[in-house]
Structure formats: structure tokens, C-alpha cells
Amino acid sequence: MIKFPDPFHPFLLTGCCGMGIIFLSLSSAQAQDPIDIPVPVIQGTPAQTYTPGAWQPVARINPNQPITVTITNQTGYNLETGLTTGKTNTKIAPGGQVTMNNVPVNSDIVINSIDRAAVLDYGIDVQDNGVNVTVKTGAGVAGDNAINIQNTGAIYIY
């Protein structure tokens, strides 16, 4: 958590509209205690171009070379995966693996549990422009997950 001090008094903006004219008045309000804002923490090894701040890529590839993505299912559940760029969905059995060749940049790869809602956790490793994704179960709220490969070569997990 980051605490932001409140060095100024917040102002309350009020307005009144009549006969096509807008009247604004500012009134001072009491200063409040600092606010706690949660900052997301990315697990694993950050990309080599990491700079402090939110929304950092987890890895990078060369967008000018062919991209291969290999997904390994270590969840114990049947998974399905597919590219949002129109390729058909593929099922991955527990302990199974699937490889997608010539994945286009500006793609999202979605991975979902078929049998039941499950929280998925991705481990990303890049070697020779091949993206290796290890899928495990995680803790938290169940939902869909995606891997985003941008035209800059940055890889994000959403």
C-alpha cells in the first residue's frame, strides 16, 4: 500500500444553472487522513525492460520474428484455449500441452477451465521467441484470464 499525504484542502465544486448561465462556487472542506491505495504486485521475473510502476510486461519477444506459444496444463482440470484473432479453440487435458505456431502480434490468448470455475495462475518464460506458458491453479476469485502479446513485443497477463 502507498500512503498519499494530503498537503492541500480538498475543494467542493457546486453549480447552479439558471437562464443559460452556469454559476460555480468553491467551498473549502476539512482535510482528511491519507488514503491507502492498493498497488498490484506482479509475481515472477519481470521483463528486462522493467521500470518501476504499474502495468509492466511480464516478458518480451521480438515482434519481427515468428512467435510460438506453448501452453502446459498443470491444473488438474480440462482447459480450453484460443486466440481472439479467430483461430479455433483447443482443449488441453490435465498434464497436457499445446503449441501455437506463428501467433500474430496484437493477439490475446484466452485460457479457461472447462469443467469448473478455477483461478488460473500463469508462469511465463520466453526463449528464442518462444513463449512457454505454465498454467497452475491459484488462490482468489475465479474468472477468465488472457495473455496479451502487443505489437511492441511486450507480453501482459490480464
Question: How would you sum up this structure in a few lines?
Answer:
With 158 residues, the chain is mostly beta strands.
How is the topology of this model organized?
Layout: E1 2-4, E2 11-18, E3 21-28, E4 35-37, E5 59-60, E6 68-73, E7 79-83, E8 90-92, E9 97-100, E10 107-113, E11 120-127, E12 130-137, E13 145-149, E14 154-157
Parallel strand pairs: 6-12
Antiparallel strand pairs: 1-4, 2-3, 5-14, 6-9, 7-8, 7-10, 10-13, 11-12, 13-14
Could you walk me through the main structural features you see in this protein, from its secondary elements to its overall organization?
The chain has 158 residues and is mainly β. 0% of the residues lie in helices and 47% in strands. The chain contains no helices and 14 strands. It has a 6-stranded antiparallel beta sheet, with no helix packed on it. The chain has a 4-stranded mixed beta sheet with strand order 9-6-12-11, with no helix packed on it. Strands 1-4 form a two-stranded antiparallel sheet. A hairpin with a 2-residue loop joins β2 and β3. The model is unreliable at 3-44 (pLDDT under 50).
Distance between the termini: 21 Å
- What structural class results from the helix and strand content? mainly beta
Tell me, rounded to a whole number, the average pLDDT: 75
For the report, how would you describe the main beta sheet?
6 strands, antiparallel
Find the count of extended strands (DSSP E, 2+ residues): 14
Annotation field: number of helices: 0
Q: Percent range for helical residues? A: under 10%
Share of β-strand residues: over 45%
Runs with pLDDT <50, length 5+? 3-44
Strand order of the largest sheet: 5-14-13-10-7-8
Radius of gyration: 23 Å
- What is the helix/strand order? EEEEEEEEEEEEEE
What best-fitting shape do the alpha-carbon axes yield? globular
